[in-house]
Amino acid sequence: MKLNFTDFDIKITREAHGSVKVYDRLPGKTVALTPEEYVRQHFVNYLITVKGYHQSLMANEVSLRLNGTARRCDTIVYTRELRPLVVIEYKAPDIVISQKTFDQIARYNSVIRAPWLIVSNGISHYCCRFLPESAEYRFMPTIPAWDELL
Fold first, then answer.
1. CA gap 99, 48 in Å, rounded
2. Whole-angstrom Cα distance, residue 47 to residue 17?
3. Given pLDDT bands bounded at 50, 70 and 90, which one contains residue 132?
């Protein structure tokens, strides 16, 4: 599947019992390869190699509690002081990013309180900045580089 990123050497393996895994560089282990995971691996690589994000300040599958229910945020990027800076939600390439997707990430951010939100299905990428003084989101024309986030 062709995504809207520069190609990179994604490490995919097939297990003896037939399952397909991909190496996830953030936790440093293999995980099941799903279409959403394929997008995540490409997007994380893009943030690190093109946009200058620090791998050591990123985490995948971060647990949170939302209205008493356990949820998982796809990726969080942290400041050097380990405060949430960016919340990222991924969808499979065949899933159209809709208002429902933004509602989901906004709900997560009501707990996380990061100033930046990004949504991607690997083909379309959207980024917005949360403005707490007006409680509104301002969409950006591109994904900011690391030094533009602070």
1. 27
2. 33
3. confident
